[in-house]
Amino acid sequence: MRFFPLTALKFSEEEAEYLASQKLARIATVSRDGSPHVVPVTYEFDGESLYFSGWNLKESLKFRNIQQNGRVAVVIDDLAGGTRWSPRGIELRGSAEIMEDQGGVYVKVKPVRKSAWGLERSEEEREK
């Protein structure tokens, strides 16, 4: 049996800025038969966790998958501006929890592992 850490995953300044600046992610869940399911979602980031909702969320396969198995992976990526090929992004793995408030149902994703690429800034960029 695997246990998730009790402390929040720490993000670098570059990672946190990137996650806060993006709006579209792809979330992967696992169906009851073990089949992967990947769909795009819009999200919000509070510095520790990702949150998403959506039209007919309760009727979606991702919702049912999260109900029966809260393990998820999320990828947020894009191509940085400029003329050269420069992919950047971050993959997060962790647990998803279904939440509810006055505004309705939403999902909170608590990352416990991360892998980032292309987010490093040069010394010149950091000094600006």
Q: What labels would you give this structure?
A:
Pnp Oxidase, Chain A; alpha+beta; 128 residues; single chain; seven-stranded antiparallel beta sheet; 7 strands; globular
CATH topology: Pnp Oxidase, Chain A
Percent in strands: 35-45%
Count of individual helical segments: 3
Mean pLDDT: 89
Number of strands: 7
Query: What would you call the structural class?
Result: alpha+beta
Number of domains: 1
> What's the architecture, going by CATH?
Roll
CATH class: Mainly Beta
What does this structure look like?
The protein is α+β, with helices and mostly antiparallel strands and about 130 residues long. The protein has a single domain (about 15-120), classed as Pnp Oxidase, Chain A. Helices cover about 15% and strands about 45% of the residues. The chain contains three helices and seven strands; from the N terminus they run αββββαβββα. It has helices at about 15-20, 60-70, 125; strands spanning about 25-30, 35-40, 45, 50, 70-80, 85-100, 105-115. The chain has a seven-stranded antiparallel sheet. The longest helix has 9 residues, at about 15-20. About 20% of the residues are buried. The model has no long low-confidence stretch (mean pLDDT about 90).
Topology:
Blueprint: H1 13-21, E1 24-30, E2 36-42, E3 44-45, E4 50-52, H2 61-68, E5 71-79, E6 87-101, E7 104-117, H3 123-127
Antiparallel strand pairs: 1-2, 1-5, 3-4, 4-7, 5-6, 6-7
